[in-house]
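Homework help board

Subject: predicted structure for assignment chain

Our instructor gave us this sequence and asked us to write out the predicted structure in token form, then describe one feature. I got the tokens but I'm not sure how to describe them. Can anyone check?
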Amino acid sequence: MTFRSDDRGVTVQVGTILLFATLVVAMSLYQATAIPSQNQTVEFRHNERVQGQMQDVRNAIVRTGATGTGQPTSVTLGTQYPGHVLFVNPPPASGSLRTAKLGSTTIEHLSATDSETRDYFDGGGHSFSTRALVYAPNYDQYANAPDTVYENTVVYNRGRDGNATLTDQQLVHGTRITLVTVNGSLSRTQSGTVSLDPHALSPSTTMTRTISVQSDGNDPVIRIPTTLGVAKWTRLLADQRYVQSVGSGADGTVAVTLKGRENGTNVTYDLRMAAVGVGSNTTETNATYITNVSPKTETVNGTTTLVAEVRDRYNNPVSGVTVTSSDGGRTETTNEQGRVRFEYEASEPGTETVTLSIDDNGAERERVSFRIETASGGTGSGGGGTYDVEWVDAAGLDCTHDANGYPTVCTLDRSATSTHTLTANVTYGGEPVTDTTVDFGLNRTGVVSTSSKEATTGDDGRVQVSIDDSSTGDVKLLAASGGDADSVVVHVVQSGAMPEIVYNGDAAATRGYRNSGPKSGVVFSVTNERPEGATLTDVHVEPHDSTIDALSDPSYGTGIYESELYVSAQRDGASDIGNGVSLPTTIDIDSDGQNLGPPFRQNPIIGGNNGTATFYLYQFERNGTPVEMANEPVDVTLTFENHDPVSFTLDANDGGNGGGGGEQTTAYPDAFNDGDGALEYGEDPSIPPSNPEGGLEGFGNLDVDSNDNQVAALREYYRHPDGFEMSIGVSVSGIESRNHHTLVLGDYRTSGGGSHEVSVTPVDENGDPLGGSYTLSESSTTTRRIDLPQAVVEYVNDNGTLYLVFEDRNSNQDERLRIDYLSVESSDD
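My token output:
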């Protein structure tokens, strides 16, 4: 019996096998291409965050050196890859953070102006060893990731294609020289977070000392050990007028030459130096020299106090050092300010020299001598000082006075104002004593604090100190110098509610300049109820949701909603930080971010008497993706120069919908594009027109109604073959989506040799007109409001930006437009 073959199931089996093979191939292709691409994006985002963290490290080191107080921070060395069900990821990426040998910074041809300090800091070379701090990533896919390096107050990326700076330098600023060295050993490699605790080696217990220095006859030179290169340092120091040149030095250093003389006189520089320890194996500083605080020559009639200060090689005070007096071999130990006091009692008329010394008294810098002249008739019982110290003024306080009109008891009302300035006068024989130190003290703590512990008298023999109240009560404020002292009683009361800086409870989530997507920004305001203005220095930002890990604006612009932090106040301030900043963070406004000129890296001032400040934070991200902030609480702490820190929690629903509402909003220009050939602050060649002509001067003045005092000027240049031409672009970003937009041209006028006509045209990003043009031809100052047509409104609502082109063509005349301010007002009314 013969059976027929049956192939009916073969096709299904083959199809199944082919389908499975296709799936396997597809998955393999996805594993080989898509997964690495996704991981590379994760690595790139992580590298951006680490660059921001290295800037935080830089700020912590600089602050530690300036204040003597440690500033802990951290760096996330590696990152985790997102999980997949069917696909495989490599192990978490790691990175290393280590200190690296750099060399020594040398200061040459600078000599201290004070004679005792000059015993140590003379015109010879002074070298201070320092190290770099290097973050090196070890990624699986991002093969060209740069190392990020901190050295000499600068953070930069070091890559195969060269170096790119991320911060400005603080080494030289005008006539201020700041040297912060790094000492210690650190080497950590891991995928987690490393905590850093920079600690001050010098100064160890107080603020850094600033000494005055001048040229020794040659131009001063600072030799910097660096791997950044001469070209980068040249650019970093380009705006410093006292820097004469930047060139190559020996052993890989960069030589910065400063002006020694200007207009026939020596230039005086203020020199501050500090040493900061990072990691282990740090080296403490030791006593290097001793200098006088009280005058070196005194005429006494009884008892006087000799005050000296012991300093290390960085010119900072050293505590716990034994100082020996030649007057009977007595010894005293320096206090936290590095100072010692010896009481000298004159026994008989004549002249005596008292020498205070440290170590073995072998070098001139290890001793300081005081010449004491004792007048005849001295009692020897003490109490009669060389100088006469008197409190002479307490501005703004309600005081009772003695027979000479000097304040004795003063009342300070905390409810009215918290800070006042008092003036003391130092005389000898009725004549003012100049350039002498006056010490300030309090007989109790907790009532008021003083702005400084000492001050130096000016040419009129006077010094001032500010007091700030802490609580009600009575306290005695003393001023002492040259053996005499005076006191004034400060009676602190509180007659009403205390004026404060308060959060207005108006936080709102906003899309910023975007018309769609999550509301990833937050805007809020505070009010200063105090009579005096408040200078804001730092803003701490910490979302409650710890997965919100970055604050990073996606724009290349630099205005509101185009910077991580923008504060609009009596004086604006802003920080635009390259690659954003990791959260939580504290933004140091005058140090962090790009140095683009005011208001960037400028501490904002909130006006007194209910002045307000509006804060724009943009934008919050989670793993590089914008986060909807409408229901995300954020803790904020504001730190001030002249007010206690203010902390509060933002609820982004406090103020309702930040992406548009009934209230009018105003946006100002953020960029321009002209044809003068110079790249200036605010200039963006990517905005229309594509072929600009003419020039715009004073762009930064366009965002403020200055009552016609500070203006911008648009003018033509004779560069075009057909004659004078003007075609200048201005963009206004951050415009919220509303029903109506009004262009405001404030306090403008036209001038020139022709018809005095300049046109302004709204255009799209390609420079194509969106509607009609508007002619400006007023020769007297005028303010004009233009309600933009529907086509322009729709474009602005879709893009959040208005582009304007100011033109004058074919007039063959040099037309000019002078304008005080420009804005776009938006509302739903």
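Reply (TA_rk): Your tokens look well-formed. For the description, you could write something like this. Residues 376-385, 657-662 have pLDDT under 50 and may be disordered. That's the kind of observation they're looking for.
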